Amino acid sequence: LFASVELAPRDPILGLNEQFNADPNPAKVNLGVGVYYDENGKLPLLKCVAAAEHQMLEAPKARGYLPIDGIAAYDKAVQGLVFGDAATASGRIATVQGLGGTGGLKVGADFLKRLNPNAQVLISDPSWENHRALFTNAGFTVGTYPYYDAAQRGIAIDGLLGALNTAAAGTIVVLHACCHNPTGYDLSAAQWEQVIAAVKARGLVPFLDMAYQGFGQGIAEDGAVVQQFLASGLDFFVSTSFSKSFSLYGERVGALSVVCASKEEASRVLSQLKIVIRTNYSNPPTHGASVVATVLTTPALRAQWEQELAGMRQRIKAMRVALVEKLQAAGVKGDLSYITTQQGMFSYSGLNAAQMQRLRSEFGIYGVDSGRICVAALNQHNLDAVAKAIAAVI
Ligand code: LMR
């Protein structure tokens, strides 16, 4: 039966974890996957999460099946966080609990495939490696729109708008709401207005992926683009994730929200999303979403979360500054200001695949072949070694 099954390549990001774990080098550093580690290189358990879990333990509950669309209080809290109270009250947003941000994308992709099977999908060039694979596996043809201008180290805004302005009506455009993965370059509010105008003029379907809210400038600042889309009157999709912002990676806690024209339309869309979920994994798990809902709806825990998230954001920014200093000390010449201009967890280093592979094989430093390194995994103990290794392969 399986004689013809081919060995698949490792996942370009999660496959690095497998390689990293198998590497006996005691000095190895994992800058591959987008995960925040604290200054001691440890995955943090946020205090707000521990407090919510403590509360939950004091009043333990049996675990029945959740509704297909998840915990109602969680879905409502997600809407409040992502869209604000006024938009939530309108009733025109359908939100379902998702298995992380990836799960939200997948439910959206499957729903869109039923709705418009011939639509094309456009992702940014470059994009998160899994965007292409996920939409391809959902049955779509996936193309790209220009995004990164390597020569200018910034956004290829003319190319991006040009691609949108020539896309066929109904084309699904996957956009990174903040902390672009992998480049770290985000559109300004004015550029988002241009994108929204093009999307509107051409009748495109915007799908925002917001996996890093709070890691750029702040929760509201990073989510501002959602308000711009709301104000445009467009229908749009938003997948959100609490993997990073709550350090709950293994709980797979995220959501998909679909902004519709009316409350009545939203209830029809929700009914279809529920079919997608029921026929994929039936209904979502309880723990992670209960934790997030507890934190978001308990004022003291919510304040604590915002403070802890700000702490992660500030430490990443400090690591960007420190990386520039260490690279300069290691002899790297030229303008390194791009490292502090980029935001979110990643720096798009400009190193090529061969250089990234040398970093792994010679120095035990793991980054993605695209040149992406996770700044959120740097700390005072590994910075020197990382900077020297980068200097050596340049
Ligand atoms: C990443 O880009 O590293 C993260 O989003 C983790 C993942 O699932 O790839």
UniProtKB/TrEMBL annotation:
EC number per UniProt: 2.6.1.-
Pfam families per UniProt: Aminotran_1_2
Superkingdom of the source species: Bacteria
SUPFAM superfamilies associated with the record: PLP-dependent transferases
All copies of domain Aminotransferase class I/classII large, residue ranges: 28-390
Gene Ontology BP, a term: L-phenylalanine biosynthetic process from chorismate via phenylpyruvate
Cofactors, names only: pyridoxal 5'-phosphate
Alphabetical UniProt keywords: Aminotransferase, Pyridoxal phosphate, Transferase
InterPro entries: Aminotransferase_I/II_large, Asp_trans, NHTrfase_class1_PyrdxlP-BS, PyrdxlP-dep_Trfase, PyrdxlP-dep_Trfase_major, PyrdxlP-dep_Trfase_small
GO terms under cellular component: cytosol
Gene Ontology molecular-function annotations: identical protein binding; L-tyrosine-2-oxoglutarate transaminase activity; pyridoxal phosphate binding
PROSITE patterns in alphabetical order: AA_TRANSFER_CLASS_1 (PS00105)
CDD domains: AAT_like
Enzyme class: transferase
Family affiliation: Belongs to the class-I pyridoxal-phosphate-dependent aminotransferase family.
Oligomer and partners: Homodimer.
Protein name: Aminotransferase
Species per Swiss-Prot/TrEMBL record: Methylibium petroleiphilum (strain ATCC BAA-1232 / LMG 22953 / PM1)
Lineage of the organism: Bacteria, Pseudomonadati, Pseudomonadota, Betaproteobacteria, Burkholderiales
